[in-house]
Amino acid sequence: xxxxTRLALLTGTAALFAACSSNPVAPPAAAPVAATSTAATPAAxxxxxxxxxxxxxxxxxPQVASTxxxxxxxxxxxxxxxxxxxxxxxxxxxxxxYESVISRHGNFLSANPKVAIKIEGNADERGxxxxxxxxGQKRAQAVLNALKLMGVKESQMEPVSWxxxxxxxxxxDEAAWAENRRADLAYPRQ
Length: 190
What we know:
This protein is α+β, with helices and mostly antiparallel strands.
């Protein structure tokens, strides 16, 4: 009887600790009861309950927003690479070599009417500041007119002149002056 009392006390204590634990604890297997002088049969051990298995938690896949890079912001796109139209000395007529540049930008702008640009006319350092401002404005206006022929709305374009104030090259020879006689297509920086 003493063994049965001890067994009951041990089982009760284990059950108490299992109830307080945050992790499920399997109850201890019942110890076999020693045979006494009376013919008692040993108690059969109850199978231990299987520990509950947690279902694998689904892992959240990171969501990456994909945005299309506008062509004029893509450094590998010709719209970003070729943004200048160069002019001969004291001229504002667009050379045939730059018709493809005008065509490319014209097609893009007419297909994207929400994109607005500035056309910045420039001149080399020769001539008075007033003359160079006027020449830069004529160059910007010539590019604007060519883009209008491609279907670009005038409201998408703003011609401005920097005259000789924003040189691309700071030299004082024909190679530098040729770099500075231009009209640049300036897209917004988004």
